[in-house]
Amino acid sequence: MFDxxxxxxNVFTDHRGSVLYNNHFDAxxxxxxxxxxxxxxxxxxxxxxxxxxxxxxxxxSGRFLISLVRINDxxxxxxxxxxxxxxxxxxxxxxxxxxAGFANSIQALDDHSxxxxxxxxxxxxxxxxxxxxxxxxxxxxxxx
Length: 144
Hints:
The chain is an all-beta fold. About 0% of the residues lie in helices and about 45% in strands. It contains no helices and 12 strands.
């Protein structure tokens, strides 16, 4: 099983402006994309997980706190499982890879932040969505 990964992007700037790029991200497995814009920075979209599907997330506007937890038992996960956190910023084209087997929590840190999400399955292609209460996993660095 893979661990979550930050795939670092970069920026090139000259007299014409800037180009953000990520030459290390392989988009071959991506089958669908969508944008998330939370109503406010107070709202936490938590917890949604997948046994089979993997995702990649990129902030296209603002910043997001992306929290991830490996699910050990999909029917009764351990609430004390370690939570891994990433900050996704739109001033870099970093891609956060969420392998299959994880649940995620998404919180915008700036107003009007937008998060691009890519998935390796089409909507309805597999029945693979699991949801847990927002306060279920207690070993967070950042409180809900």
